Structure formats: structure tokens, C-alpha cells
From TrEMBL:
Entry annotated with the keyword Signal: yes
Superkingdom, taxonomy of origin: Bacteria
Name by which UniProt lists this protein: DUF4399 domain-containing protein
Keyword entries, A-Z: Signal
Species whose genome carries this gene: Limoniibacter endophyticus
Signal sequence interval, chain numbering: 1-22
């Protein structure tokens, strides 16, 4: 009986530890727009829309994290398999390193065609613009949308 109780206790402790470790891994998701959504583009020259992200990292302006290892910002690319939607001369379309927070501007006006099917890709970066890695892979999130 004592062995059974001990085994159950150890199993519960191991499950709790696994859950805690999973919670400790950096997370990143696109809250809006949702996958498959049709989104009206902005009337500005950049044809921008707001993209809302969520992370278990603090999202602050670059250079503001100090010693906090669970702090950074987001880099975004539209159609991340290529560079056609990047801001000219930049390796991204947008990032929130100037302001931090959970809102980032997707600038579809830099794409060859602002309207149509696009993939919004975001990457979690540290205070020095380096990708945050989990098991050697960058923490990213993707969502496919149609813009009009």
C-alpha cells in the first residue's frame, strides 16, 4: 500500500514538474486576426492593419528589458517564406521594438499585391533582436488571412 501511495505521489510530482516546465517555455500566438479571416486593409499608404499577439514574455521596447530574461519584443514578416513584403532595406515588415506591447502593425502596402491571401509570421526576439529559442528552434507563430 505504501509503495502504491509513493508511486502515485512520484507520478503526480513528475506531472507537475512537466507542466511547470512547459509553462516556463516561451509562448507566442497571434490573437487577431484569426486564421482564415478576411481583413479590410487600412486606408493609409502602408495599407496597415493591427495584429494583436500574446506571449508569456514581457513585450517591451528594445533595450528596456535589463536583466529580465523573460522579456523581449516581436519581429513580423508578411509572407515569411520570402522577402517581398519587407520594408525596403529591412529583413522584416514590422516589429514592436520601438513601443513594446501586444500590438504590431502589419504593413501590407510593401507587398507586391496588398490584397489577397497572405501569411503573417511573428518571431519572439530578445532585447538585442536575437530570436528566442526553444530546443534550438525560434519561437514563432503564423496565421493565414485574406486581405481586401
Amino acid at each position: 500500500m505504501l509503495r502504491s501511495i509513493l508511486a502515485i505521489g512520484l507520478t503526480c510530482a513528475a506531472l507537475s514538474l512537466s507542466a511547470a516546465q512547459a509553462q516556463d517555455n516561451p509562448t507566442l500566438e497571434i490573437v487577431w486576426p484569426k486564421a482564415g479571416t478576411t481583413v479590410a486593409l487600412g486606408d493609409d499608404t502602408e495599407r496597415a492593419i493591427g495584429v494583436v499577439v500574446r506571449s508569456n514574455f514581457k513585450l517591451l521596447p528594445a533595450g528596456q528589458c535589463g536583466e529580465d530574461r523573460r522579456c523581449g519584443h516581436v519581429h513580423m514578416k508578411i509572407d515569411p517564406d520570402g522577402d517581398t513584403c519587407n520594408i525596403p532595406g529591412r529583413p522584416y515588415n514590422s516589429m514592436n521594438s520601438d513601443f513594446g506591447g501586444d500590438l504590431i502593425r502589419a504593413r501590407f502596402g510593401h507587398c507586391p499585391s496588398a490584397t489577397g491571401r497572405h501569411v503573417i509570421g511573428i518571431l519572439l526576439a530578445d532585447d538585442h533582436h536575437r530570436p528566442i529559442l526553444v530546443s534550438g528552434k525560434p519561437v514563432t507563430a503564423l496565421v493565414e488571412v485574406t486581405t481586401k
